[in-house]
Amino acid sequence: MFDLFIYPFGFKKNEEYSNLTGYFAGNVHRKATRTRVEDIIVIRFTPFRKLNDEIEKQINLIVAKAGDQFYKTKGPITTAAKLAGEFFNNLLNQINIKNTSQSPILGSFHLLVLNKDDLYLVHAGGSTSYHLSRTRIEKFEDRTYGIEGIGVGKTIKLRFFHTKIYESDRIILTTKSPKTWTKETLFDNQRLSISHLRRSLRQLSQDDFEAVIIQFRNGNGSVHQLKLDSAEFSSIDYEEIDTPFHDTPPVSPVPFSSSEYNENINEESLPAEEIFSEKFDDEPLDDLTRELPNFLLGENSEKTSTEQFQLNIFEDGSAKQTPKDEEIPQQQSLEGIYLSGDKWDSEKIRKKVQKKKVTKNESKAFAIFLLGVRKFFHNLNEKYRTITNNVKKGLHKVVKSTSRSNVDKDPNYLSSSSMLMIAILVALFVSAIGITSYLQSGVGSQQTELIANANLLISDALDEPDVNNQILMYQEALRLVTESESYGKSESTTEIKRFIQTQLDELQGVTRIDIQPTIFGGLDKRIQISRMGSNTNGDVYALDSGTGRVIRMIATRPDYIIDNSFTCGPGKYGEVIVDPLIDIEPVNYANKINTSLMGIDGRGNLIMCIPGSDPIAIELKRSDLNWGEIKALAFNGYSLYVLDSGSKNRDIYRYPSNNYAFDQVPESIFSSNIPENLAGSLDISVNQEELFLVHANGQLTRCNLNQLTCENNIGYGLILGGKTRESYSVLPGSKISQVYVTLPPDPSIYFMDENNQAIFHFSMALNLQQQISPNLSSRANNLDESSKLTAFTVNPNGIIHFAYENLIYFGYLP
Questions:
Q1: Cα–Cα distance between 808 and 814 in angstroms, integer?
Q2: Once rounded to an integer, what is the mean pLDDT over residues 458-480?
Q3: Overall pTM > 0.90
Q4: What range defines the domain where residue 366 resides?
């Protein structure tokens, strides 16, 4: 984590000033959401014309409000930054609308966000930033000025940049930078102190300008305001200062005001040794017994106008309150540092302080903390003793076995083999420590890089007008964040994933339903559910692809129980030997044999399963050709349909029921015109008059069973982005593998999408009704984004079941 040392300044008519309009710097405050804890921001709005005092106050006010908006926004950094920029632009437009008698306030906009070592730069209205590191200079520029900066329209075009920050790096924020500020001239000045750098920028510039210089130093996330005094650095580079800073710890959420400054640049600078000894080393560290300034203890103190209204932003009762469980401790200081190293306060708050007694609650909390620390070190010491004792015992055994006689003579004697063993163990310990440190460093770098790229994709998606492109961008961002979690999960990655999923749900019309386990305690982990079906009475059937057997689950309250007496799977039934089943079909029609489920194996053997009785098996008659690859079956009460999608032999055969005997020679529903793309097809489903066939490429074929005619690639009816209905050959970004047609009272078609782990609900006219996905945060479940949806079924009564290999859950359709 870095500390920020910030110096805002400008030159006009050969005079330097540091009270810039529209400048805000701060870190997390008590109303911030938890995902913003590690974010530090700097906002700079540069007006293109001179403003009067009243307008300056309004601009400073809305800049501070934009900072407050950023910290109260959940989700990725880029989303919070975009909303803060739009929030500021909206308030600026309101000011321009009210001030009709004056020309509108236009300007450029900077928003800098630091999260650990990731720096995000947001530009609008012609803003420019420079990143000065030890090895290179990077220039980030917004070349799209709009009309004349921001403030003239309701929309704002934001450009996002990302870079990595290292110790002693510097950032320069400016607008319409002088032409003399080239990478070559700035590279020559990259190792200068901040004081030298500002002088160099002044010497390079012939025109007036304003800029903000930011330097990054290793620290704890504090923000330090720099300003001029008579002892500014002149003879020493800032990088050479090794003495630690002992400033006031960050405790107040108030952002720094730049309205107070103490300029005297003509006096001589202090020598380096005087700065070190008097300004840093001799300053004592804060502790609990020191007298604290009034503003740290909640006392009222006088403030400048800029400080006061920035304080009011965070105390504004009209602002939307953040829940208490998301309140963040205060972490910002009112104090700053002169360029010379002296600490400064606002002059009016430097009053005599009084010692404050520690309250009873504070003492109790501190005592509990000390006890916790003592217990931690006690446990650590015990573990250390245990490890060292074990090592000593092991070494003693080695020594004793290798040189017993020498030990008897000299207890301190170690044999050569013992010393060799010690040397090997030491080398192993050192190597293990080094490898662990290296891997942790590399893992952290890879994770932050993935999250940074995901944030940039989210930013692009927010500005993308095409809905399909938005979906693809969000899906790729989700993939990157999911990949980053392989290096460790955090609240930040969870929040980003939740935001992306919400955006995808909105774009794709996803309905999230609460789920609960179908079987309390779950099924055996060796079970892999590949197909499911359900009866109108509520019974649910699941096919285990590993054994080829069917599990029957009977509806109870509040869940389901397994019927262990139900037999439906491979075996010999009569004269027919049934292999492991590859597909099942529920029977929801009255029949004399009381079968409730059908199944088929790879050799064309049909099995009809009966609760409480043994199954009935039938060897289906073949056509003139042998079977190719049986993939699925379907039944509409009076005909059985079998999908054979082999590469050589392929067809969809129809077997008349003949009172559930299925003893006739089948006929092809295609007559002699069998489509080529039937090979590799995945699934079929039927109702009384129509059959639906899903191809391997996701296309859909619909066949009229009365006329035996088929229409290939009929398309899916979608309405995306609020536009009119369009027919798509395949569902965008999906991988359809199963289809299921439900019976009245609500006949519908459902498709399973393996890519998005979702179910598409279509009307019989093939218009999308909704996309259904389980709410993974509902109740206790063992699912996450990596869980693979393998099967589903929908009950006519509005209950949907999801199978994730051996885990089955159910929910209620909206």
A1: 19
A2: 84
A3: no
A4: 357-405
